[in-house]
Fold this protein.
Amino acid sequence: MIAISALTRSFGLRPVLRGVDFAAEAGTITAIFGPNGTGKSTLLRVVATLIRPGSGQVSIAGYPLPSHSEAVRGVIGAVLHGPLLYSELSADENLRFYAQLYDLAAPQPRIDELLERVGLTRRRKDPVRVYSRGMQQRLAVARALLHRPKVLLLDEPYTGLDPAGTALLDDVLREQARGGTAVVLTSHDLAHGLALADRVVVLARGKAQLAAPSSDFTPETFAARYAEVVA
């Protein structure tokens, strides 16, 4: 579903991605780890068509980037650093607005389903400005899932979530993978990401220094391997 080869991206004279090879299959969860500044968010932003690749090959659901960015935007859902919500609108109004952007016909049943799934049905009429950070994150996830994307991208999605919210998001991501979506997330929590993901990737020094099935590791062996490759 995602195929990336020799991807580079610089900001000015500062190279961030220095030849990243990366792949994510349909129906799987991939967790990306790495120190701050190593390019995790940049990689997701390239896949999300928010920034252009410098060089290399990037293909999403069979569409090459950057030449088919519009088509790619129709098959991805993303929860990045900002929730992309309108604070004066309610949860219901936010999702109806995004349903119009995706040209969804009769979206209300889908909106009802997602608000129930993320635990916001009782607060659906409240303006987003009164939501906690965790509630906003839950709504951002519902927004990203509204059009049933083939690829779901999440950058540190557990920020602001309490234990109940974390468990809920775990369940949602596993459901998406079981339904055939390629789920890709970044995380600093090695143990949690390892337990959730089917595959783990470690970025360091601008490249994917490690890419392997999560089943290859215990939490202890993965922590040791991570420390080794980022040193």
